[in-house]
Amino acid sequence: MEALAKIVVKAAEAAADPAAAKNEAAAASAGFAYGLAAIGPGIGIGYIVGKAVEAMARQPEAAGMVRTTMFLGIAFTEALALIGFVVFILLKFA
Amino acid sequence: MIALEFPPINEILRWKDLFESFNKISIIAVLAATIGTVVFLLAGRQSAKTAPRGIRNIAESTVEFIENGVVMQTMGRDGLGWTPFLLSLFTFIYLCNVPGIIPFLQMPATARMALPAALALMVWVVYNGAGIKHQGFGGYFKSVLFPPGVPKALYILVTPIEFISAIIVRPFSLAVRLFANMLAGHILLVTFALLTESLFQAKDKILIPFGVLPMGMLIFLTGFEVLVAFLQAYIFTILTAVYIGGAVHPEH
Amino acid sequence: MLTAIVTRSGEAAVSVRLVQTDSATPTEVVVSAETEETVLPTEAEPMMMSAEPVSDAVPTEASEEVPVAAEARALSAETGTVEVVDAGPNPIAPEGKELMWTFGPFLIFLILMRYFLFPRLRKGMDSRYESIRSDHDGADAAKADARAEVAKYDTALAGVRAEAAQRIDAARQTLDQERQRAIAEVNARIAAKKAEAEAAANAERAAAQAQVSAAVTSVTSTVASLALGKTADAGVVSQAVSEAMQNAGSRS
């Protein structure tokens, strides 16, 4: 409750200064931005790796190829989460 | 409570110049190039007749990793000519990532946008150049912008997407992937290090033993960063190989 | 209570942040130097900075920065809440000097790798692989030679065996012949002796028969003369005796 009160006080203080208000809003939304950006890629990477493990278990002789492809897929999926992270940095510090 | 103040982001990322325009990032980049050169130079000096040992073993297994793990998997036998480029890319990125966990350096050079951006720009030039060289200017752009096997009417939709993805998004995501991974790792390490320090130096004596928890996490994350440093160098290299392979041999 | 936190980082000369820690005395500015290293005496650092600009920053920039910071300090002293965050570029924007310091070492490394380090290492590896392969081939040839040798030995062995078997057969044959001959000789001798003994036995039997028939004839003629009263013809008697004897011989 104390923390909430502090936030309210801060918001009230910030309302006086638009620039500070913008900073506050950006800092608060930065966390949301990253959290939301991490959901999709998290599911996606889990799915990719799970499928890759399945494929490797079914055909161990193709494991090398599957692993390479898995890393490629992870890289492409992960890029989305990382762009979310960059947005986080931009919102928080820029 | 403990007084924990996270420093401003630039304080953990930017460094004073030692002399004009030469800061810690530059030191790491120069060191990476130097160490890479020295390793391969010493490896080349050793006798090739006997079984490789020590530094030659490291260099040869790196070469074989690039050849078997990257080139053969993505471009096949024709792509073996690209090995030196991919090898130096991999070595350089790895040696720039690894200082993030080396004591006293404690800064991955790739956590600054400049280094990944420069490398991604270079890769962009190389794969586009290779495509133009192999297929001619018109042929290359035709294969990139008008992928075969798509109904004619869909080109209105496909061409702009392909243009954006192949010309703009690729180098951007290549750079951002490396940069953001290393930056995130660095920030994580800084966070846990700060937490450990402030717990160990807490005024309230009862808090001091709890400093072991973030310290354990710090050690675990340091180990994790070893993996990330390798993995990101590998992914950057293999994506480069995929892009070059796609530009040189477009799927018909 | 206001605490001024002065930090130096990167190109920016200084950053001054005024943190309000106690709202009871909002206007009183207290320079606290006891807690952390980041909390520095407010005056000493900017003085030093203005006297000696940071080496990377262009002098004009540095001289601009200091008044800005000073102004901010003045401003913050009045309001108490304004925060002047460290200037310096966005953490995501690549910096020119770092780009330059990436391109330089990497290009040098790439060129060295492409034209000098990699070919040398690769040549060594290839020659070793070649020697290993030739050793392999040599080993194969030696193996084939050994196989041929073994085959030759086998045929020789078979020849010797055949010869031995032949000799044994021959010896056995000779032995057999010898034995046959000896047996035949002995048989012949036995047969001769038998024949001799038979001839003697026959002669004696004939002599005995003659004596018997003479005796029988005389007896018969005597009997006949007694019975008939006259002398019987000798010829008829001998003939009848011999007939009767023959009948008895054939009957017995």
TrEMBL record, chain A:
Which UniProt keywords are given for this protein, alphabetically ordered? Answer: ATP synthesis, Cell membrane, CF(0), Hydrogen ion transport, Ion transport, Lipid-binding, Membrane, Transmembrane, Transmembrane helix, Transport
Asked if GTP-binding is a keyword of the record, the answer is no
Q: Name the membrane topology term.
A: Multi-pass membrane protein
The record's subcellular locations are: Membrane
GO cellular component terms listed in the entry, alphabetical order: proton-transporting ATP synthase complex; proton-transporting two-sector ATPase complex, proton-transporting domain
Transport is among the record's keywords: yes
Q: Name one GO biological process term.
A: proton motive force-driven ATP synthesis
Chief location: membrane
Q: What's a Gene Ontology MF term here?
A: proton transmembrane transporter activity
Family label: Belongs to the ATPase C chain family.
| Cited function | F(1)F(0) ATP synthase produces ATP from ADP in the presence of a proton or sodium gradient. F-type ATPases consist of two structural domains, F(1) containing the extramembraneous catalytic core and F(0) containing the membrane proton channel, linked together by a central stalk and a peripheral stalk. During catalysis, ATP synthesis in the catalytic domain of F(1) is coupled via a rotary mechanism of the central stalk subunits to proton translocation.
Q: What protein is this chain from? A: Unannotated protein
State the organism of origin: freshwater metagenome
